[in-house]
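Hey L., structure's done. Input below.
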Amino acid sequence: MIRLIITTLFGIFFAGCQPHNIDYFPDPIPIGEGEYSISSQESKASDQFWWAAFDDSKLDLLIREAIANNFNVMQAVARLTQASSLTRQAKVKRLP
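Output:
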């Protein structure tokens, strides 16, 4: 029984030591011609509301909520500074 277990373990161990074939010169990635390019610099109004094409009221609600709660970076930094100050004030109250 022990011989079977040892043989199995050696088999598993040496199976991981097999050489791997590495393709050092892979084929180049094909570049899309026209299907992935932008035809004009102007964005269409329908492109700005891409989620409307799904006609899903729950998605519309989620997008509106995300836009309403999308704070910019400076507001986020100000909120973090405020939270840090409040934490310091709370810790000071514990000191003698």
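The chain has four helices and no strands. The mean pLDDT is 79.

-- N.
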